Every structure is written in structure tokens, then in C-alpha cells.
Amino acid sequence: MFERPDAGERAILVHLNLQVGQEDLDELKELTKSAGAQPIHVVTGSRHRPDPKYFVGIGKLDELKSAIAEHEADIVIVNHPLSPSQERNLEKALEVRVVDRNGLILDIFAQRAQTFEGKLQVELAQLKHLSTRLIRGWTHLERQKGGIGLRGPGETQLETDRRLLAVRIKQIQQRLEKVQKQRHQGRGKRKKAEIPAVSLVGYTNAGKSTLFNTLTGADIYVADQLFATLDPTLRHLPLGNSGEVILADTVGFIRHLPHELVAAFRSTLQEASEADLLLHVIDAHAEDRDDTIFQVNQVLEDIDAGKIPQLRVFNKIDLLEGVSPHIDYDAGGKPVSVWICAQTGDGCELLQQALTEFFLGSKVIRKCYLSADQAGLKAKWFGLVRFIDESVNDHGDCELTIEIDKKHLGLLKDIKAEEVA
Fold first, then answer.
1. Confidence of residue 141 (pLDDT cuts 50, 70, 90)
2. Angle 266-273/157-192 helices, nearest 10 degrees?
3. For helices 116-130 and 157-192, angle between their N-to-C axes, nearest 10 degrees
């Protein structure tokens, strides 16, 4: 068995055209660059179904060997998920490190994680991925322990490592449960304060973080690479005289996001699944725009966020000819999409206008008259209504102009109130 190199940056990419589960070659190149590797050669081919032993056929395997020798490559990246046995057989035949698409994405996530929760989630996903691949590349793991002081029940090194992995996975899951409880408490406080939650979602590299920085004045990391942002960031976003919302920037989605990542990042993705509104950021200039929209909606379904209202934000309109910032409305006069350029800020005021119109659709303005013995109601309303104006009339009554959600109109049933046009 070959000795694995500690690192490898010169990568040969393998991309097969299969009948189902087709991946994108350009996306693989971007993923490879995002991981810090250099794609130096691409091997392509077509098959009706993957070879059960090597994933590629024998002829393509010989082509890979020649390409590795010619380009002095030290890693092969396959644009498809590999079974543990396929990955092991390829490494043995090619004598270089082999990484499949899921392993590549996990590696990128490991580089991007900054927060304690993010690092735990990445480690959990990596350990689950590794637990089925312990045998590959290290033959000593199959040997029985032996020698003075090591004789015992006959547990192999491989079994020991699997047991230690299981213990570590359990520890991480317990820690994540605590973090998840803290996040749940934070969401509960925001809901109690009646502050709407808005989550930015979209395909990776669509411009979510740039838009987040433009709207909130934050300074989160932005780069022209896949998965530049991993950990969620929350900020208050004022909407003029119409209150405010909590805006959350979340991890970008990608087609066929590995199930390990969806499971491990479920607590982070809850920022999207528990939002009142999703801002679906779309690269308006992308050739596969419709496909990325479909892929994002698929991931939203996987995290139980498919039924949350969406406002589509078509970004990067500066790359389109004849398109200016504007809002599209449905037949009922509700905003459904906004066309903007997050980098220049063009149209961002229209996006804030659309957010205001969306959330004000369920709110009304009322003028209330409170007698002296009803003054205590103001304290009970705090957090449930927005106070616009307050004065005292000649009769000593308190005149309040408030903005209130229609679902809370029951608060006004025992007082004198009138609608304000």
C-alpha cells in the first residue's frame, strides 16, 4: 500500500456524464480552487452507470495513471460521491490521494468554519464521513494488538479507532444540543418581541454576503469563491418608520448538498427554517439561473423550509443589458421579486421598500383613546404594537396613534379606537 502525501495541490479532476445525478464540471473547478488546490487536468467520460469497483472503467483508469505521471499530480478529485470501497480501490490503483465530491466540500467547510458551533458541525460531518473509510490507506489498522503489555481481548486497531470515533461523535452531538438550545432561546426572545426574522438564502456565490453587508453595514467576509461564508451572522435592519427586522446571512447552497452536511448543519440552517421570510438571492447573470433556483428550493424542502414565503432577489443586474432596478408584483399587489446590484447598492432601497410592503400588509394604523384608568394598557402593549404618536386631549384622555398587526386587534376590543387612513 502506498504512503499518503501529507498535502496535495496539483489536482486532476474526473468528471463522468451519467444518466442520473449529473454534476457540473465548472462547479467542480470552482470547488477545487476554493479548497486551495490547482486543477491542472480534466479527465472526462460517459457511462450508463458507475463501475462498482473503480467507479471509472479500466480504460479510463489507465488514462488517469498516464495523466498523473505526465502532470505530476498528487491528488485526484472525482466529481461524484464514491463508496468507501471505490475510493480505496482507486487509491490503491493510482497511488495518489483520491477525494470525492462530498469529501471536497467537507474540506472547504473545515477551512471556512470560524465559530465554535461551526467547527463542531464540520467535525461531526467529517467524522461521520470518515467512519466508513477508516480501512483505506493504512494497513496497520487491520492488525491485532500484540506484544508485552498489549495482549488482551483481541480488539483490532481498526475496531479501536471506530469505537473512539463513536465516542467523539456522541460528545460533539451533546455539545451541539446545548448550542442549539441557546439559539432556540435567542429566537424565542426575538419572536416575543415581535421582530420579524428574514434569512438570506441562495446558491453559493450568488452575492448573499455582499447584499448583507450593503444592507446592514456589516463587514463579514466576502470573496468570489464557493462557500466564502459558513457561519450565520445576524443583524438588525431598520425599515424607516416601519420598524425593523432581524436579517440573517446563512451558508450558501449547492446542488446535491451532502446529506452529512444537511444533518450536521441543521441547527445553523434553522435560521432559515424558522424565518418569517426568505430572501432568495439569485445570480441574475448566471446561465444556469433556473437550475440553481430549483436546487435551492430542493435544499429548503430538505430542511423543512419549503413553505416559508419567499421574496426573490435577482442580483448582479449590472452584468445584464437593459435591466434597471425594479420590483415585480403579483396580481394582489404583493412584491414577489426585486432586481438589484448588491455590489453597487443599486436597487437596495427598493428591496427595503419591498420588505416594508411585505410586512406592513398585515398591519394597520389605529388611533386609540385611553382614559386615566386605562393608562396601564400601554405597558401591556409594549413589544406588540409600534407607538407612532402620543398626546393628551382636553378631557384628560391619552390619544395614541399606533401600528398594530391584525392578529393583535383583540387588544383594542375594550377601548375606543378608530381606523386611520
1. very low
2. 20
3. 140
Q: Are 281 and 204 in contact (CB under 8 A)?
A: no
287: left (phi over 0), alpha (psi -120 to 50) or beta: alpha
pLDDT of residue 139: 47
- Helix, coil or strand: residue 203: strand
User: In angstroms, rounded to a whole number, what is the distance separating the alpha carbons of residues 336 and 191?
Assistant: 24
From 348, 303, 316, 349, select the one nearest 201 (Cα to Cα).
303
Hey, what's the cell of 342?
448588491
pTM for this prediction: 0.68
CA distance 122 to 126: 6
CA–CA separation, 149 and 379 (whole Å): 73
Please state the φ and ψ torsions of residue 211, each to the nearest 5 degrees. Answer: -65, -40
Contact 232, 182 (CB under 8 A): no
What would the grid cell of residue 81 be? 460521491
Q: N- to C-terminal Cα distance for the chain?
A: 80
d(CA 284, CA 286): 6
pLDDT tens digit string along 159-187? 777 778 888 888 888 887 887 777 767 66
